[in-house]
Amino acid sequence: RNLTDISLLESFIHLRYVDLSENKLQDLSPLSSLTHLLWLKVDGNLLTSACMQELPYLQIISFAHNHIKDMEGITHPRLANLSLKGNKIQTAVGLSHSQLLSLQILELRENKIESTAGLSLPKLKNLYLAQNAIRSLEGLEGLDQLTTLHLRDNQLETLDGFFCSMKCLQYLNLRNNGISSLQEVAKLQVLPMLQALVLLGNPCSDEPNYRLEVLVLLPRLQRLDKEFFEQDEQEEANQIRQKRQEEEK
Hints:
single chain, about 250 residues, alpha/beta, 3 helices, about 10% helix
């Protein structure tokens, strides 16, 4: 509707669901009086900041496809799902760890983030970081409830930065990065619950016996590149692993 002004909404204090997508908004301050708001969608506007007055019951926000450059000023205590997909964010630093105690889903695809430092959110379960410019994994040790991590289409060459404290991580997507050696994949042995891994599009996926070698390194893995391991693959990997362990003694 090409809206540029939403000041009329200030009087609708009991609104709970608001969708203002595909307008030309630059200012969300009139929403500060909507203290009963549960759900807000403002995709495809002209916002340069996600900063808003704290709203006590707000649980879901989508700021996708705006011009937001940082994550400062997001402090809603019950926020569980936050999307900042398709913005211009360069750093993950800025989210208020002490106030975002309910955040479980964070969508940061299609930004310009270079490092994961700053994402230590205690309740986070799903983290989407595909299509950024991430070269290093930092500050992930506090994500002890994370189950899903998407890092597709980044610039990772090493897999340092994973920790045994990430005891719930089950799904890891590393498609189309620069991981050239299966020795890097061995660093994922610290993840006790990892069940599904995607490595297609990395140089290491062209190595001989790639599927088998990954299973030798990660015996608890159930799926590689979306395909489940067959029982005969698991048995062969077990034999190779045992043989190598005996040779090392």
